[in-house]
Amino acid sequence: MLLPIPDRSVESACTSPSQKQTSCPAGINELEKSSSSMQLTRAADYGVRVMIYLAGLPDNERAMLPSLAVATGAPPSFLSKVLQALSRAGLIASRRGQSGGFQIVSLGRQASIRNVIEAIDGPITLNLCLVNGESCSRKSWCPAHPVWARAQQAMLQVLDTAMIADLAL
Fold first, then answer.
1. In this predicted structure, what is the pLDDT of residue 109?
2. Which of 35, 82, 117, 121 is most buried when burial is the number of CB atoms within 10 A of its CB?
């Protein structure tokens, strides 16, 4: 699922480098500006990073959590939860102990970025009116609905064609 993530550079988005005052339209406060961009969750981003990293390792090689955290730039405690989700989805295998660690499995090598994101966050939807099984009462007359539907279809197609194994090369 794509979620709005606050933009940490809101001030810089509305301020030119030579100005100290903001130049954003009146009435738009920082919260409204920061919730207008759609981004992947951090968990999904780390999930994609760790899958690409694991796919780049030699076959049957495992990586321990500390090395995965360094390779992905993710906090170990947070990455641990991401790895659990990937393991539950059958994309990676984990083993405890001295010869343990995390290893990508065949299904994980064949996964698309969409598969990884959905293993972490569930189905990707650009707008609530596009959630499967939900009916939007505005769908028949809303001029924006077909735009959202086309945008989601295009995004899903790109994510479906970006394969983890190809990105690891």
1. 96
2. 82
| In contact, 116 and 47? CB cutoff 8 Å | yes
Q: Where are the beta strands (DSSP E) in 25-79?
A: 38-39
Per the CB < 8 A criterion, the answer to whether 3 and 39 are in contact is yes
Alpha-carbon distance of 59 to 133, in angstroms, equals 40
Q: Report CA-CA distances (Å) from 18 to 12, 30, 71.
A: 11, 20, 37
Model's pTM, two decimal places?
0.75
Cα gap 129→150, rounded to integer Å: 13
- Please say whether the beta carbons of 72 and 46 come within 8 A: yes
Report which DSSP code applies to 25. Answer: P
Going by pLDDT thresholds of 50, 70 and 90, the confidence category of residue 134 is: low
Domains, in order of start, for the chain: 1-39 (no CATH), 40-125+137-167 (1.10.10.10)
- Quote the tokens at residue 22: 């903001």
Backbone angles phi, psi at 124, to 5 degrees: -85, 125
**Residues 61, 59: Cα–Cα separation, whole Å:** 6
**In contact, 136 and 145? CB cutoff 8 Å:** yes
Q: With b meaning 16 or more CB within 10 Å and e meaning fewer, what string describes 58-84?
A: eeeebbebeebbebbebeeeebeebbe
